[in-house]
Amino acid sequence: MSFTSELYQTIELSEVDSTNRYLKTELSEGRLTGPIFCRAHSQTAGYGQRGRAWTQSLDSLTFSIALPFDGRIGEMPFISAQIALLLRQSIAGASHATNLTVKWPNDVFLDGKKVAGCLIEMLSPSPSRKEGYLIIGVGVNCSPVSGDGFDAQYVNDLDSERFFQSFSVALYELFMVDVPPVFKLSEWRNHDFFTPGQEVIVYHNDSSETGRYDGLDEMACAMVEIEGRVKRYQSGAVSIRPL
Q1: How many CB atoms lie within 10 A of CB 133?
Q2: Could you tell me the residue ranges of all domains in the chain?
Q3: What letter does residue 129 receive in the DSSP assignment?
Q4: Residues 6 or more apart from 46 whose CB is under 8 A from it?
Q5: Measured distance CA(6)–CA(145) in Å, rounded
Q6: Could you count the other beta carbons within 10 Å of the beta carbon of residue 71?
Q7: Are residues 153 and 86 in contact, defined by beta-carbon separation less than 8 angstroms?
Q8: Is residue 117 classed exposed, middle or buried when 0-12, 13-18 and 19+ CB atoms within 10 A define those classes?
Q9: Mean pLDDT value of segment 229-236
Q10: What is the mean pLDDT of the chain?
Q11: pTM
């Protein structure tokens, strides 16, 4: 089913290497202007955080949304976490899935296994393009995922039309209205994949440390107590996993 929206220019592709890469190219070359919703029925080279390949199932939903942004976005490190909350909420509202949690910085888990994730990239303004763009790539597993050492979950009753509508409108309202975006910390605490005090391992660049998870702060920085001292981490080259 093709998705249509009054808020977005919608593009539907049968196959593409990556919807994020496609939008970055088209926007950079001036062939498109946002807001844009781009869905691909098949991604041949999807990627996630730190350039990792995105392993998808046959019936995965893969799409990207491009929204114009101003300089305020760079001052809001909580954007990834807030988008993950919107993604979780939209999946919950369009399926019968329960026990959906959010894992810092921007993944959604079902019954302890990853079911969806998003990749947020920025396209800065240029001499030929006044607007910068925030590009949000999303993947949702809707059937079993196979792969060596890959452990994931899936939602088999997701109403895709309802999901697309809910998530795209929520993103539009988050960024395209005059009210500054906010991070809903209390909602994150209610649906956090980790529990306070849980032992975790923090991977940062080529090193790792173990500690106890202490939740997120108001700017969505992850807090981990390591050797009696609380360290704060922003999303990026950091991964936190259960010990």
Answers
A1: 24
A2: 9-187, 194-242
A3: B
A4: 17, 18, 19, 53, 54, 56, 62, 137, 139
A5: 33
A6: 8
A7: no
A8: buried
A9: 90
A10: 88
A11: 0.91
Could you read off the pLDDT of 148-191 as tens digits, one per residue?
445 789 999 999 999 999 999 999 999 887 677 889 999 999 99
Q: CA–CA distance from 191 to each of 18, 47, 114, 174 (Å)?
A: 29, 25, 14, 20
How far apart CA 212 and CA 75 sit, in angstroms, is 28
The dihedrals phi and psi of 89, each to the nearest 5 degrees, come to -60, -40
**pLDDT at site 214:** 98
Place domain 9-187 in its CATH homologous superfamily: Bira Bifunctional Protein; Domain 2 (3.30.930.10)
What type of residue is 112?
A: G
Q: Which residue has the tokens 């809903």?
A: 184
Element (H, E) at 114: strand 113-123
Is 114 in contact with 204 (CB distance < 8 Å)? no
Considering the domain 194-242, what is its CATH architecture?
Roll (2.30)
